[in-house]
Amino acid sequence: MNSHFQLDNPNLGKEDILYHIGLTAKDDLQSMFQDVKFVCMGGKPSRMQKFAAYLDDKLGKPKTSRREKGELLDISGSAGRYSMYKAGPVLSVSHGIGQASLSVVLNEVLKLLHYAKCNKDVIFIRIGSSGGLGVEPGTLVITDQPYNSTLEPVFLHISLGRSIPRPCSTCPDTRRELLNCSKNLGIPAVIGNTMATDDFFEGQCRLDGAFCDYSDEDKMNFLKRANQELGVKNIEMESTCFSAMCNRANVKSAVICSALLNRLQQDVVDATVQDMDKWQQQSFEVVAAFISNTVNDNVVS
């Protein structure tokens, strides 16, 4: 099914400065980005650089990749806030930690696609890490329904002093295809619900932050409720905002995160660097397989 990208804002125009990604609406964004069909986002600049390089090789180093001196160019590097790379029809973008940081760059990436006239069949995928709930470390959790910190299936957007509940959901077809890709690659993955929180410590029921006014029993009761009653399989900090903004723009979205630990058993990540690198690589392989399959099926022109 086609998705027709659209932004509902009559104030957008040629004078727009995309400050945080180092571009402006006056740049020739159409010739630079019109072929973009996928936007992959993740927290760390290094993660998205590695993913872009991996995908560039996987796609056979397309001519439309953006390079400088033979290396993929960090298009947004001059702005000093985020990193963005272009590998063929794919943008690989860092978004920092949390929904506030994500919303800034996602606003500007959406406007970039608007000015580049990418108005059809754009798919957004967040690639991240998370704390698992009832899943083994290393499992990829593909988000079905995102929940906020109060276990409501909405993103609470604050505007003009009002709290506005924005619907947040992911694309069923995309998440099923990601799961199929993981099965074909022999990589452990599940589809489950995700809780997105506003902070890493108290918001995620940890006991080891600077402050804590609840007991271990309180923590476990809440986490078990999220897992057993709502099917929450992992906890991170971006999925509600990410999916809600994609829904508002009428673009398909998916979230795939490796579980670094099982929060029903421990609070502290004790996986080795080698294990975490392996799990990150597996998420790259699954998303790259999905993109390659989509390209080969002629969904991408």
Spell out the key features of this protein:
2 domains; 7 helices; five-stranded mixed beta barrel; 301 residues; single chain; Rossmann fold; two-stranded antiparallel ribbon; alpha/beta
SSE layout:
Layout (H helix, E strand, L loop, with lengths): L16 E2 L4 E2 L4 H5 L4 E5 L2 H14 L8 E2 L2 E2 L11 E4 L2 E5 L3 H18 L7 E10 L7 E8 L6 E6 L2 E6 L4 H14 L3 E8 L19 H15 L1 E5 L2 H10 L3 E11 L10 H24 L5
Parallel strand pairs: 3-7, 3-8, 8-14, 9-12, 12-13
Antiparallel strand pairs: 1-2, 4-5, 6-7, 8-13, 9-14, 10-11
Helix pairs in contact: 2-7, 3-6, 4-7
**Helix-strand string:** EEHEHEEEEHEEEEHEHEHEH
Which stretches of 5+ consecutive residues score pLDDT under 50? none
Supply the CATH superfamily name of the largest domain.
Nucleoside phosphorylase domain
Based on CA atoms alone, the radius of gyration comes out at 19 Å
What separation lies between the terminal Cα atoms? 15 Å
CATH topology of the largest domain: Rossmann fold
User: Please, what is the average pLDDT?
Assistant: 94
Helix content: 25-40%
What's the domain count?
2
Helix vs. strand class: alpha/beta
Which geometry do the CA atoms define? Answer: globular
Strands, total number = 14
Protein described:
This protein is of the alpha/beta class and 301 residues long. It has two domains: 1-121, Nucleoside phosphorylase domain (Rossmann fold, 3-Layer(aba) Sandwich); 127-296, 3-Layer(aba) Sandwich (Rossmann fold), CATH 3.40.50. The chain is built from seven helices and 14 strands. Strands 8-13-12-9-14 form a five-stranded mixed β-barrel, surrounded by four helices. The chain is globular. The two termini are 15 Å apart. The mean pLDDT is 94.
